Amino acid sequence: MPERICRVATRASALALAQTEVVVERLRTLFPRKRFEVVTIKTTGDAATAGGREPLGKGIFVKEIEEALLAGEADMAVHSLKDLPTELPPGLTIAAIPERADPRDALISKTGAQLDELPAGAVIGTGSNRRAAQLLACRPDLRVEPIRGNLDTRLTKLEGTREPGVAYDAIIVAVAGCRRLRLENRITEIISPHTMLPAPGQGALAIEVRNDSAGILDIARALDDEAARRTTTAERAFLRALGGGCRTPIGALAEIAHDSLTLRGRICASDGRRFITGTNEGPQENAEHVGTALAETLLDSGGRLLLDRMPTV
User: Fold this and answer.
1) What pLDDT shows up at residue 247?
2) Helix (H, G, I), strand (E, B) or coil at 57
3) For residue 119, what is the DSSP state?
4) How far apart are CA 218 and CA 213, in angstroms?
5) Strands 170-174 and 123-125
6) For position 248, what pLDDT does the model report?
7) Which residues, 6 or more positions from 300, have their beta carbon under 8 angstroms from its beta carbon?
8) What are the φ and ψ backbone dihedral angles of 151, each rounded to 5 degrees?
9) Per-residue confidence (pLDDT) for residue 166, from 0 to 100
């Protein structure tokens, strides 16, 4: 009897398919006798990004995929880690976090101008409150407008108009997405984390499986990268302790040097006028504690007040 196919679920966007194909090719190399099949699933987030300006909620890019996993319609799923809420549904686990891509944000401008060269009043497109707040913190003279859609769609909007009479001068996107779609040549500037801390988990993928799928767990765990696991664990622990979600202007980036893990975290007011930044360091095996402790420090330093003034999802 032939071995059952391992079904790998993902969103149907070009970026999701590209990063899933990288994962599947790696699995085929590691397990040449195993058959893998990509299954695409349309999520609530895919429908929401087709248009509109209303805020997007937690988990909208993963909900239907997780339901497929729990229903046995898929065996594992590939997500962008930053799309995954810090609390997973009962019965599911992150079995692996593969080697992480560049976590930083990138500016793509119409004229090739870098961030500090954009004229006052320039219109910047982003769908992220985190990016918008940090952008306004360093350039309050800019005008930030929402933008939706996948990377190709956003590039098309940059080249055209958002609506009659209004045009984007630049957009901000993830470096990792540009590279995975081989669009790195479109990047005008990679923004320093000192200016714009990335979203917790940005640049990393997550391989999610059911807890009771022992064989699939073993296969997925072969993809796990220790450094990626520990840095993103610290960042997600920081986000979890703050109670933040995808709409909250929270940035975090952890780095490992020798045996030490250093985490930088930031909480911003939505308009960028106030922000609190801090750093914590500890043994890399204590990544969870490093993240939680930094969150507690920032909360006690005024972060709680900033968070209390933000809308909830």
Assistant:
1) 67
2) coil
3) P
4) 9
5) parallel
6) 77
7) none
8) -60, -45
9) 61
| pLDDT of 292 higher than 50 | yes
Q: Cα separations (Å) of 67 from 11, 74, 153, 233, 251?
A: 13, 9, 28, 24, 28
Q: How many residues does the chain have?
A: 313
Identify the sign of the CA torsion 102, 147, 57, 142: positive
Q: What number is the average pLDDT over the span 164-191?
A: 92
- Alpha helices per DSSP H over 122-211: 129-138, 151-159, 175-180
- DSSP states of 208-247: EEETT-HHHHHHHHTT--HHHHHHHHHHHHHHHHHT--TT
List, in order, residues 6 or more apart from 225 with CB less than 8 Å away: 96, 97, 98, 99, 100
Task: Compute the distance between CA of residue 265 and CA of residue 69 in angstroms, rounded to an integer.
Answer: 32
* CA distances in angstroms from 45 to 96, 160, 188, 246, 303, listed in the order given: 23, 24, 28, 12, 29
What is the percent of the chain with per-residue pLDDT over 90, rounded to a whole number?
78
- Rounded Cα gap, residues 268 and 137, in angstroms: 9
- 52 pLDDT band, cuts 50/70/90, is very low
pTM over 0.70: yes
Where in the sequence numbering do the catalytic residues fall? 83
13's tokens? 């966007």
| Residue showing tokens 């993928």 | 205
pLDDT in tens, 187-226: 999 999 999 999 999 999 999 999 999 899 999 999 999 9
Which residues touch 158 (CB under 8 Å, ≥6 apart)?
Answer: 108, 110, 125, 168, 170, 171
